[in-house]
Design brief:
367 residues; 34% strand; 6 helices; 14 strands; alpha+beta
């Protein structure tokens, strides 16, 4: 059974200060951010003005919701404007003043490296992004596989920590995550991963579980670890389950069949879409991966070629050109070639689009 989640995002520029922090803390004083807000919701049929307009309508309401915060002092609206409290303020307004039902996630990103996501239960997952440069090779791949040669990546790691604060005002301090991460940065950055104990076969999945095992005792709130091997692929591990994703972009033309004649969405237009394929499988003990990223690309390539640089409205079995229809179509076609595929994200702009998943494949994963 498939589930559809709609996603919308927008940015705003704001100044703030966090009075509850010590005077010496850099965030105590007046400062500012380019914030990026995201909401994901499972919307009922008929909620939008017409079928296919769900993302556009969700984005319109989110923009109206955060409008008072744009080019404003956040303290005038939120007493302690931490990322978490901003997200809670937005969620409350969306539900109570802008009639957005079925909210699963509200996220606030205050910098490229930091943010908070509220999940469906209202738990705040604080996250922090780190980068390290390293070499590695995969020793167990077949002869001739490119990953069997020594090579390197600019790896990225995101640490996610579940902080259910109740009545408290301040979330986990990002500085605390920095302190925990610092020894790992020294150990991993500008090194060959194969030479580090426990990383003889350093796939993305193995790196994520290696980090989990060492971070969890120091950070009991750890929710999961995300490892980007490249900018378009990576792995998640939550202590029990591995998931990987592969991201592609496509440039395609669409039109929405149900849009009224006066809507610009009724005419032929297009987007540079971001498509994310999420796969879940047991870890192959020998290979150290769930699915080879190369196999994902190879098996999915015929489907990709059918939709990239194409007029999608000419595909006979595609119900419509909205992102939910596209994601569902890709999931159906993709699972025939990649049975491990359980979720497809299709974004028409940054953070705005649809997520279609099999039951159990739609949990909060802020990649």
């Amino acid at each position: 059974m498939k589930q559809t989640t709609y996603s919308a995002s927008c940015g705003f520029e704001s100044a703030c200060q966090i009075p509850a922090l010590p005077l010496s803390h850099r965030s105590h004083g007046l400062h500012g951010h380019s914030y990026f807000a995201t909401v994901r919701a499972q919307l009922p049929e008929g909620w939008a003005p017409f079928a296919g307009a769900e993302v556009e309508e969700l984005r319109r309401r989110l923009e109206a919701c955060v409008a008072p915060l744009d080019h404003a002092l956040l303290n005038r609206h939120i007493e302690q404007p931490t990322d978490e409290n901003i997200a809670r303020w937005i969620r409350s307004r969306l539900e109570n003043e802008f009639s957005v039902p079925g909210i699963l996630q509200v996220g606030i990103q205050s910098t490229a490296q930091t943010g908070v996501d509220l999940d469906a239960n209202g738990h705040a997952h604080v996250w922090r992004r780190y980068r390290f440069q390293a070499a590695h090779k995969l020793p167990n791949v077949p002869a001739g596989h490119k990953c069997g040669r020594m090579h390197g990546h600019g790896f990225e790691v995101i640490i996610h920590a579940n902080q259910d604060l109740g009545e408290r005002d301040l979330a986990i301090d990002y500085d605390h995550l920095d302190e925990i991460w610092a020894p790992f940065q020294i150990q991993l950055n500008y090194h060959c991963l194969n030479e580090i104990e426990g990383l003889a076969n350093p796939t993305s999945e193995v790196i994520s579980s290696w980090l989990w095992e060492r971070l969890k005792p120091q950070l009991p709130e750890l929710s999961w670890v995300t490892v980007y091997e490249t900018g378009s692929s990576g792995a998640n591990y939550d202590g029990q389950r591995y998931r990987i994703w592969k991201e592609l972009t496509l440039d395609s033309a669409i039109r929405l069949k149900h849009a009224p004649a006066h809507s610009p969405l009724s005419g032929i237009h297009g987007h540079t879409y971001t498509l994310r394929l999420h796969l879940s499988a047991e870890l192959d003990a020998l290979m150290g991966w769930t699915v080879d990223y190369g196999d994902v690309k190879t098996f999915f390539n015929p489907i990709f070629k059918a939709i990239d640089h194409s007029p999608l409205y000419e595909i006979a079995d595609l119900p419509d050109g909205d992102t939910a229809s596209l994601a569902a179509w890709v999931l159906d076609k993709g699972r025939a070639a990649l049975p491990q595929l359980d979720r497809v994200d299709m974004y028409e702009t940054r953070g705005s689009g649809s997520i279609v998943s099999l039951e159990g494949g739609d949990e909060l994963i802020p990649v």
